[in-house]
């Protein structure tokens, strides 16, 4: 009789338990292979944590039911899944977004890594530009690019469900899978124009897609392109092109600090290189405070990104917010003179919420 594979250790160092009104959401990396073995990220799970008989309960964790609605025995199983990192907790849904925010995210995870606290507080819409990805840190998925691509988008959908954010997927191909950047897709500041010139047709398609997504008003948050990833640069340059064409009003725009690149690159220097609008003004920093509750929701929203984002990186991003907002917690935007008032109001609303909720 073949020896059954030993179960993978599942340890998630959560700082909180499920709340009664939390909505458990299953992660997409779980496989039922037709036998009694349940696998997570390609590895067998201890039957004590996930008995094969619990598959129906597992599928019911879709973010629509509050934790308190299950009977005690099922709540115990779900709590174990949450502690092990097999489910995440979404707060009760808001009736509607508190602010009209559109976040241009070069890839799935970029908006959430940078501004998950803002999304947790106000909601909004995430527009994933280069959303067709296959790259992963996980050996199990490296030889399964179609599966990796599907799971990366499902991770994004779970994260947006936790944050209460809408999601639009544009479907452009990630630089790692484009021939032009096969030898490396990080560029220096001097290569910004060359990046656009290297793929002119792609740049025009991205610009046209984004023009449609930012039409109709509301605030637009654009990656600052800290670190020089070419897809971040192209997303930013497309937004700047829309401003130059007068398709996007500069007073609606602010730039966010790309994560994790801003942990080790100079966001201030990158902002200083931008010159926007008729006065060619560089943006200035504005802090967006967040409550402990919003930070908790951001932490939950980052957990689903198992294929590309290291847990240690997510923790560093959260600690970075503590340093930015000390003695509280904050994320940082870079705003233009034209948009200073409206983003100042956003910061004030965020600060009021942080002080009220604690």
Core attributes:
single chain; 358 residues; alpha/beta; seven-stranded mixed sheet; three-stranded antiparallel sheet; 12 helices; disordered N terminus
Give the number of helices. 12
Rounded Rg: 21 Å
Provide the structure class: alpha/beta
Q: Biggest β-sheet: count, sense, barrel?
A: 7 strands, mixed
Kindly report the average pLDDT value. 92
Structure description:
This protein is about 40% helix and about 15% strand. It is α/β, with parallel strands linked by helices. The strands form 3 sheets. It has a 7-stranded mixed β-sheet with strand order 8-7-6-9-10-12-11, with helices on both faces. Strands 2-3-4 form a 3-stranded antiparallel β-sheet, with no helix packed on it. Strands 1-5 form a two-stranded antiparallel ribbon. The longest helix is centred in the middle third of the chain and has 19 residues, at about 145-165. It is globular. The relative contact order is 0.13. The model is unreliable at about 1-5 (pLDDT under 50).
């Amino acid at each position: 009789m073949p020896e059954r594979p030993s179960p993978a250790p599942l340890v998630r160092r959560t700082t909180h338990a499920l709340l009664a009104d939390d909505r458990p959401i299953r992660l997409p990396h779980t496989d039922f292979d037709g036998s009694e073995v349940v696998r997570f990220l390609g590895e067998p799970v201890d039957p004590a944590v996930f008995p094969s008989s619990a598959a129906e309960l597992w599928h019911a964790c879709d973010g629509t039911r509050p934790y308190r609605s299950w009977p005690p025995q099922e709540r115990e199983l779900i709590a174990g899944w949450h502690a092990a990192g097999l489910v995440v907790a979404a707060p009760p849904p808001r009736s509607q977004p508190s602010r009209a925010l559109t976040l241009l995210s070069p890839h799935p995870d970029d908006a959430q890594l940078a501004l998950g606290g803002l999304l947790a507080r106000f909601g909004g819409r995430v527009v994933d530009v280069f959303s067709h990805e296959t790259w992963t840190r996980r050996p199990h998925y490296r030889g399964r690019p179609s599966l990796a691509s599907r799971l990366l988008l499902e991770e994004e959908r779970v994260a947006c469900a936790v944050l209460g954010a809408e999601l639009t997927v544009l479907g452009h191909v990630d630089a790692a899978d484009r021939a032009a950047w096969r030898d490396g897709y990080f560029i220096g500041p001097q290569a910004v124009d060359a990046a656009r010139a290297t793929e002119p047709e792609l740049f025009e398609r991205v610009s046209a897609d984004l023009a449609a997504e930012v039409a109709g008003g509301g605030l637009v948050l654009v990656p600052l392109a800290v670190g020089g990833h070419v897809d971040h640069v192209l997303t930013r340059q497309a937004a700047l092109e829309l401003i130059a064409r007068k398709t996007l009003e500069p007073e609606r725009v602010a730039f966010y600090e790309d994560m994790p690149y801003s942990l080790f690159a100079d966001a201030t220097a990158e902002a200083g290189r931008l010159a926007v609008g008729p006065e060619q003004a560089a943006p200035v920093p504005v802090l967006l405070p967040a409550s402990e509750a919003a930070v908790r929701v951001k932490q939950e929203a980052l957990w689903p990104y198992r294929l590309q984002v290291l847990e240690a990186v997510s923790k560093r991003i959260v600690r970075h917010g503590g340093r930015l907002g000390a003695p509280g917690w904050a994320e940082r935007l870079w705003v233009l003179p034209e948009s200073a008032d409206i983003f100042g109001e956003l910061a004030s609303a965020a600060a009021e919420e942080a002080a009220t909720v604690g």
